[in-house]
Backbone:
């Protein structure tokens, strides 16, 4: 493998587009090791693994700020794996809260759908009428607002 890689090669090998690489640079999650005289960015081969790490962490629901923290933990020899486990546990709790919220929304939507007889005009549609009322009374029973 080459000693340095172009942005296009990193993007291709990591399975992302070039704009993603540039975005990660702007967010200070990735930086080139240098530039050619022509101005092309050059990256170390490890940049591919770093981009994959970022994408995989995002797919698990970690924000870019959280990914930045995970990247710092990744390179630290003094931090124990328990720190990473704690962050993953916190993310799991966030996901569980979101699932509970979505399930509550599902119940409300099912209830609205069940009230509709699909007859008559839209001016008497119970679903449309319910959208005019204060949603807190219907949805917040089990939906945690963020």
Residues:
């Amino acid at each position: 493998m080459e000693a340095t890689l172009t942005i296009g090669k990193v993007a291709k090998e990591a399975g992302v587009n070039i704009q993603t690489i540039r975005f990660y640079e702007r967010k200070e999650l990735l930086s080139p090791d240098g530039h050619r005289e022509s101005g092309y960015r050059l990256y170390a081969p490890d940049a591919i693994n770093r981009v994959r790490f970022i994408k995989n962490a995002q797919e698990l629901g970690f924000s870019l700020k959280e990914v930045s923290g995970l990247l710092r933990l990744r390179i630290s020899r003094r931090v124990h794996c328990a720190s990473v486990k704690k962050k993953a546990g916190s993310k799991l709790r966030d996901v569980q809260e979101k699932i509970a919220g979505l399930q509550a929304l599902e119940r409300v939507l099912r209830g609205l759908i069940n009230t509709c007889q699909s007859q008559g005009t839209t001016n008497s549609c119970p679903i449309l009428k319910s959208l005019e009322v204060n949603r807190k009374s219907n949805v917040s029973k089990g939906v945690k607002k963020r």
